[in-house]
Amino acid sequence: MNEDPCQSEALPGISPPANPAPAPAEPTQEVALLREALQKAREESEALRTRSLAARTLRDSLAAAGALPEAVELLAGAVPGERLRLTPEGALAGSESLLAGLRSRYGFLFRPKSVLPTPALTPPRDGAPLSQAALRNMTAEEINKRWSEVREALKP
């Protein structure tokens, strides 16, 4: 007759709870705030990633446009952040106008446009032998180019 009190339907003086606590159907205000904060952090992270990519693209464009390596960061900092936008292809929107504006304002921070190399001019050969003064002023390259004339001028 030892009856287990846990096995009985009801214990005297203790009634079972009417309804167990139901799971909340809607998120609580705290969860809603956390979700909102998470969404905001995602948006800020994406905006930061986009700005970083746009800044890197600007620096690459500046280097390709002939900006002095020491001045690339300075020039990139001169562009307001709101002007840095990327196209869907990942290129910098309006890069030509940005670079033109920087070049016009800070032209001294860019390398001069290179000119095609031109061969060195040699004086016309009129048949007169080279003088000792002309030999002294010649570079090694000129001497090599005109070696036969130099050799004739050096003969005693």
In short:
With 156 residues, the protein is an all-alpha fold. The chain has 6 helices and no strands.
Mean pLDDT score: 80
Q: Could you name the ranges where pLDDT drops below 50 across 5 or more consecutive residues?
A: none
The backbone outline, from C-alpha atoms, is rod-shaped
Question: What class would the helix/strand composition place it in?
Answer: mainly alpha
**Distance, first to last CA:** 144 Å
The largest β sheet comes out as:
none
How would you characterize the overall build of this protein?
The structure is a single chain. The protein has helices at 29-64, 72-77, 95-105, 132-137, 140-145, 147-154. The chain folds into 2 domains: 29-109, no CATH class; 125-156, no CATH class. Helices cover 47% and strands 0% of the residues. The chain has 156 residues and is an all-alpha fold.
Write the layout of secondary structure elements.
Elements (H helix, E strand, L loop, with lengths): L28 H36 L7 H6 L17 H11 L26 H6 L2 H6 L1 H8 L2
Provide keyphrases for this structure:
about 160 residues, mainly alpha, 2 domains, about 0% strand, rod-shaped
